[in-house]
Fold:
Amino acid sequence: MTPLCRLDDIPDGSAVGALPDARGRDAVVLVRRGDRVFAWVNNCPHYDRAPLGWRKDAFLNGDGTRILCAAHGALFRIEDGICEIGPCLGQGLTPVSVIISEGTVCLAG
Structure:
């Protein structure tokens, strides 16, 4: 298991980036809802290699109800990653399998 962060590092209702690549870009977006964490590859399906956030850990829309692609304005459901508004309507973010073990969010497998 690869540890990504502590669960407490993600405020409830917020999102953070994790697993920086060689350029320092976070490869994974983690969104916390209570004791659950939803994890997605940090790429918009509308255009490959387009990161979702416009700055570090800025992955959600204004009211925190959707994941926002700052480049394209697409809005994705947090629970299943499906685009509800934007140029990639109906497409989805790529899920990342994570588990929470002893308060640490880890890549599964």
